[in-house]
Every structure is written in C-alpha cells, then in structure tokens.
C-alpha cells in the first residue's frame, strides 16, 4: 500500500473515494463540507437532515459524485459525538471505512480527517496519520493460508493525506513509517496465532524467531530439551513430557544501548496447543486452544517492530514453547516437581501449565541479568470471567512499572485493568507437601496465578498481562477482525520506546 502526502486540493486528488467525517453535533463541519455539498447540489446536507442517524459512529453512506469532482465517491463517515472522539476511535473508524471501500471494489482513498486537529489538542496530524494507517492495515487483514480458493478482494493500493505546512512533511513520513511497521508486526503476530497447531509447533516458532534474529540482527539462542535439562528447567520440561513435539526456549536479545546495564525482559507464554494434559479440557471449543501461544507470538511481534524502530534501550525476549498433551509420560495431578529456581511445586491441575513454563522463563531471565520483566500470557479463564473480552488483566509488584504500562496502553487503546496482589491470596497457593501449589482453585483465579509467577520474579520489577479474553475476537469489531487480535504488540512496542527515554525502574 502506497501512502502519499499532498498539498493539493482534496477535490482534485486522483483518488477513488473521499472520506468525509460527519458528527452528531451538526455545528462541527469539515472545512470542505460546504464546497463538497455545493458541488453535489446540496445532496450532502439534505441527506444529513433527512437521515440524522448517518452521523452515528461507524455508519457509512457512499454518495456517487457523477463527475462533479475527481473522486468518484464521497463516503460519509459517521464519527459520533465530537467530544467522545479519541485516537483509538479514529483507528477503529479508519478500519471500518477502509473495509467498506474494499467491499465497494475501489483502490484508493483520501480520509479528510485533518479537521480532527481542531477537536482535541492531542490530535496532532502525525498522530491522526498513524491512527489511520494502523486502523487501515489492521482492519483489512485476512488469513487465507488454508483456503483452496482464497477470496480475491480488491486491495487498497493508495491512501492520500492532505497537509498544509511544508515543515510537517518529514514528521508525517516518520509517523506513517512507524504505523506501517507496527501494524504489519501485529498482523504477523495474528498469522502466528491463526495457524493450526500441527503447523505452529514449538520448532516452527523457534524457526520464526531465528528468521527475525537474522533479519534484524538480534543475538539469538534456542535451547533444546537437553540444554533445558542442563539449565534445570524442570517445570517447563514437566509440561513438555506428554507431547511428542520437542520443547524450545527462545531467547532473542536486542542491544539498542550497549553502554547501559538496563535490560528489559519480554516474556511470552508459548503453549502451541493446550489440551489440558491429564486434566483434559472439554472437547467443545478445544480447537481454540491453538491460541495458547498468543503471548509468545505477541513478544515475537513486538521484537519484529523493535528491530525496525531501533529504540535506544536493551530488550531480551524469552519465550518458553511446548505443547500440553496427555500421554503415558505426561505430568499427573498430585505430582511434585521442581523448577529452575529450586522451588518445589505440587501439581493440582495439569491444565494450569502456563504458569509452570513462565516460572522457569522468568527465573532464567533474572539469571541473564534483566532489570525489569513483563510477561504476556493467555493464562486464566478466570480473567475472561472477570473482564470479559474487553480488557486484559494486569498484576504487578512495582508501582512505577505499572504506571508506565498504563500510560502506554492508554496511548495505544489496548484496554488493561489492574488486579490486586493482596497477601491474603497467597494462602490459596500454599501446599502441604511442597513450596507451592500450581493452582489455588476458582476463587480469584487470575490473581493467584499471578502470585505464582510473582514468586519467581521475586524483587525484580515485574508486570504480568493476562490476555486470555483479548487474544482472540469472535466477530469483526473496529480494527479487530474475526480471529487472532495480536493484542499486546502495540502496547509492548510503545512501552519499550518510552523506556528509551526513562531509566531507573
């Protein structure tokens, strides 16, 4: 897709579709509204009066210009209430609009969204451009790898942006480039999660990681089973025992600031298929358990973007990958296992496996000298019960680290909600025969799972993001299409970029 910036009049741009935002507040009109309305013989204002619902958010109405101007269509884009507009809503509106344009079989478009600058001082043109491009790329994503006759949709080839100040040009180009990098990284993350489990095995994830390492000059290390044994990663290996697929521990290191001792760990759960093990899951919807590696995929997506944006900070990705399967060799409820840290764990449920592999990953990251940790995982069904499919749950042992994540997530529009780590909850994961139980039962299930991981993070600043409810979407919604969402990538990238300017957490 080509992105073109122009200072020419929008009425003469050689694009197929002109996107004209309209608000429920009729007093807020686009600067070109009157001119467009006059060229179309008052048709625009007439429609708005006769059908006021056309200004509700996401409502689209194409008007054919019949040669009155260069664009063939003026697409009225309902933008809702001006005071409720956010950058994330601009991102969503762009996705909705561009999908419609593709459905109408047009190739190029010009969103007249620069007028949004007057609504909110935060809506600088470069921010609007980034939101539009991200929404476009994310909202028109498709996964057709396994269709024998893929849908042959018309692709959007060109987006035009108008600007008035020549000094803005370089800033706008940088913003557009950043948007393309991040959105493509999200879509590649979606690909990883959408692939079926017989393809996206631990070995395949490791191959993809090595591809990223070669392309973006990361230091890489892929630990195999024997190396994990040597590292005493007993918890991860216990989960892997039931599968014929060999486990892998992926480690990628980006050195953006070699003179700094600061090192941030991005840790992602990589269960490429989760049957529940001996504590087997119900057969209904078990096919969805291919997405239990969405946390690991999000970390790989973030590293893909980081490798191109090159922020001045150091990052290490640690992704433990395995299947969780039942077999004669599988981990059993009632077993007691060890971990790399040395802590012993009583297995109450083999379906609480994600925290086991994360325990060894977190401890290994600390051994490698990290100064702060953030882990991302489809960890608990309890998080879906608590927060549904709207927000990811967050747990932390460090206020400053949480404030940075919260600010980054507000910027990207990926909703996150912090849950408490009260001391009383620790009672639920105390074992009578070992140091810890791997589950504290249904009550406060997300919190006790987080506390389990917190035990291994110890005093290192740590954040845990539970994306069980947000990793997948069962319907089209804004820039999220049906299937994997790629959640976490944009917030992780934003957080790492901010860390390039902040030290001491």
Report on this model:
By secondary structure, this protein is α/β, with parallel strands linked by helices. The protein folds into 2 domains: 2-182, Leucine Aminopeptidase, subunit E, domain 1; 195-499, Zn peptidases (Aminopeptidase), CATH 3.40.630.10. Helix content is 35%, strand content 19%. The protein has 14 helices and 20 strands. It has helices at residues 33-39, 43-50, 87-103, 125-139, 169-194, 202-216, 225-230, 234-240, 294-309, 354-367, 381-387, 399-412, 445-457, 489-499; strands at residues 2-6, 17-22, 60-64, 73-78, 108-111, 158-162, 219-223, 248-255, 264-268, 270-274, 314-324, 336-337, 345-346, 372-377, 392-396, 416-418, 436-437, 462-466, 472-473, 483-484. The strands form 4 sheets. Strands 7, 8, 9, 10, 11, 14, 15, 16 and 18 form a 9-stranded mixed beta sheet that branches. β10, α9 and β11 (314-324) form a beta-alpha-beta unit. The chain starts with a strand and ends in a 6-residue tail after the last helix.
